[in-house]
Amino acid sequence: MQCFVFLGIQGSGKGTQAELLSESINFQHINIGDLLREQVTKRTELGIKVQDIIERGDLVPDELVFEIVEKSLEPERKGIVFDGFPRTLVQAKYLVEHFEVLQVFFLELAENEAIARLSSRRICPACGTNYNIHSNKPQKDNICDVCGTELIIRKDDQPEVISRRVKEFYDQTLALKEFFAKQGILSVIDASEKIDEIAAKIAAIAERLLNR
Ligand code: AMP
């Protein structure tokens, strides 16, 4: 199965861009963080295992991540946009063994800008849509545009947890940039630009690869 991948520090806009790309090319969007939070809310066996890990800002063990990836696959779809996966070298190797990776988009953003964005992020607890109280406000204050639910701050967007998550990014995930660059499938994208400008650049690359 063909796939595109989004990598980047927390707050770099992976979720937003992955959603836009998956809609425009009609691929399945797999956001591991959302799937894990859904398991926590539903209090499934997996959700109970991962709740503390997520709330502390640590990474969930690779085997549990593979389990959730496998369960979420919709084999009738044309392809997948992965968002928040892979985050470790073990996951990156699993990905290239199991999928045809067309391109990895690395959304580059300075750490201070990423932290500022996470601190102003709000999320819809019902449908998972992300907002930013400065740059991507909902139409009505604190209410989700999609489903009308009151927005919340994610538990792991609290300052102490943000710093752990950012540390995990530098310790584990940044190495994947080199891993995919060596395979010749990495595009580094400036994530400080406007959402639609970034989306246009990504869509152009994706369409070129799909039409070749
Ligand atoms: P996110 O919404 O992408 O920021 O993910 C929220 C949390 O889910 C992370 O802080 C991790 O605890 C967990 N998580 C998401 N994706 C992964 C992954 N690929 N590997 C391990 N843990 C993950």
Description:
By secondary structure, the chain is of the alpha/beta class. It has one domain: P-loop containing nucleotide triphosphate hydrolases (Rossmann fold, 3-Layer(aba) Sandwich), CATH 3.40.50. 49% of the residues lie in helices and 17% in strands. The protein is built from 9 helices and 7 strands, in the order βαβαααβαβαββααβα. The strands form 2 sheets. A 5-stranded parallel sheet has the order 2-3-1-4-7, with helices on both faces. It has a two-stranded antiparallel ribbon with strand order 5-6. Helix 1 (14-25) crosses helix 9 (195-210) and helix 2 packs across helix 3. The longest helix has 16 residues, at 195-210. The chain starts with a strand and ends with a helix. The model has no long low-confidence stretch (mean pLDDT 94).
Query: Given the C-alpha coordinates, what overall shape results?
Result: globular
Helical proportion? 40-55%
* Strand tally: 7
The CATH homologous superfamily is named P-loop containing nucleotide triphosphate hydrolases
Mean pLDDT: 94
Total separate domains: 1
CATH class: Alpha Beta
CATH architecture: 3-Layer(aba) Sandwich
What CATH calls the topology is Rossmann fold
